[in-house]
């Protein structure tokens, strides 16, 4: 392909993907299924890899989420909330593992976790008191949802220790709550939510916290932003400590010394996926050693020390409807 043709294809892909991103991230009303988005996004990445001189700052490959457009107050994330690289085959996971080994000079342990299908949430504590909850937004600027997160039952308002801490995790709507909510909405003649992820995002990003309170949202916390404040050296220790502090931490995790265990984990959860009470769209591999994570650092969009393996799309998905937009 010549450069001119690549340029034309890239401009079209950027326009199309940015339109999908806006609908998905700021309106919680996706125009297409995730698998359609993912396929086009992979096309864009491949073209950009072939023609790196054609990468522009407004390319979806350079952007995290979207600028929040709601009436909620804005919050600046001192440490950006990034996206995550993803792969779709075991061979690509092996390539990731090789890259990590080459970068650090030796094999590493990974903490393997489920990839929860919700939206990222930051929680800030001062002296052990919850003082702020916010969404990811465009990674640098998110939305203040403090009053809303105070209504979520498994988020501790007060920690057992007077810590200054920022933790991050996934806010999601359990499958049963999603089914009940859509049922009610259908009976009331209201538009239904496309999927639990969009229902969670629409419910958390409400101006009226009383509406959020009725939506039965839940969380799994998976990151501590300032691990030095809780004296942990690995991701697995951080998750243990966060469990002790009262956070809801997903128990389906393990430390893997090689990729064989990861292969079995993928097979297990791809099978069990439908039976879990919450949605997952893949698994996540994280370099376990936090010092190595620091050393590996981030690109503009994703940490280099973690990767998501995405499951193939689920067959039965609710038809995508236009949904309410109340904030
Ligand atoms: P992502 O959702 O694929 O991955 C990053 C996110 O994973 C993190 O921000 C975090 O919220 C979440 N996560 C879940 N479990 C985690 C764990 N254990 N550890 C760490 N993080 C965990 O990335 P993204 O950039 O937010 O969005 C891309 C996704 O959104 C793709 O799946 C894409 O299909 C979808 N999307 C769909 C449309 C559409 O129109 N349908 C548009 C844009 C994006």
Automatic annotation (TrEMBL):
Task performed by this protein: DNA ligase that catalyzes the formation of phosphodiester linkages between 5'-phosphoryl and 3'-hydroxyl groups in double-stranded DNA using NAD as a coenzyme and as the energy source for the reaction. It is essential for DNA replication and repair of damaged DNA.
Lineage: superkingdom: Bacteria
Family membership noted in the UniProt record: Belongs to the NAD-dependent DNA ligase family. LigA subfamily.
Taxonomic classification: Bacteria, Bacillati, Bacillota, Bacilli, Lactobacillales
Residue range from the parent sequence: 1 to 327 of 669
Protein name listed in UniProt: DNA ligase
Binding site for NAD(+): 34-38, 83-84, 113, 136, 170, 286, 310
Active site: 115
Gene name for this UniProt entry: ligA
């Amino acid at each position: 392909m010549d450069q001119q043709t690549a340029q034309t294809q890239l401009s079209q892909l950027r326009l199309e993907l940015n339109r999908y991103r806006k609908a998905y991230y700021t309106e919680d009303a996706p125009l297409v299924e995730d698998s359609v988005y993912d396929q086009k996004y992979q096309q864009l990445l491949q073209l950009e890899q072939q023609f790196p001189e054609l990468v522009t700052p407004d390319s979806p490959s350079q952007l995290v989420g979207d600028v929040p457009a709601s009436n909620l107050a804005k919050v600046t994330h001192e440490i950006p909330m990034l996206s995550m690289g993803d792969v779709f085959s075991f061979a690509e996971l092996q390539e990731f593992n090789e890259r990590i080994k080459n970068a650090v000079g030796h094999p590493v342990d990974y903490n393997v976790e489920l990839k929860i299908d919700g939206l990222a949430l930051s929680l800030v504590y001062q002296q052990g008191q919850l003082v702020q909850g916010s969404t990811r937004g465009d990674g640098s600027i998110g939305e203040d949802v403090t009053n809303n997160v105070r209504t979520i039952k498994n988020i501790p308002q007060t920690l057992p220790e007077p810590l200054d801490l920022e933790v991050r995790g996934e806010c999601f709507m359990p499958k049963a709550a999603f089914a009940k909510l859509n049922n009610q909405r259908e009976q009331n003649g209201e538009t239904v939510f496309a999927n639990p992820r969009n229902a969670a995002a629409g419910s958390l990003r409400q101006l009226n916290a009383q509406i959020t309170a009725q939506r039965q949202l839940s969380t799994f916390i998976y990151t501590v932003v300032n691990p030095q404040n809780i004296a942990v050296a690995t991701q697995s220790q951080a998750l243990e400590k966060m469990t002790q502090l009262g956070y809801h931490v997903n128990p389906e995790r393990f430390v893997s010394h090689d990729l064989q265990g990861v292969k079995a984990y993928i097979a297990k959860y791809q099978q069990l996926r439908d039976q879990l009470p919450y949605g997952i769209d893949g698994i996540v591999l994280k370099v376990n050693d936090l010092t190595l994570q620091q050393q590996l650092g981030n690109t503009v969009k994703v940490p280099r020390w973690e990767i998501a393996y995405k499951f193939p799309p689920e067959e039965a998905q609710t038809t995508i409807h236009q949904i309410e937009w109340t904030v």
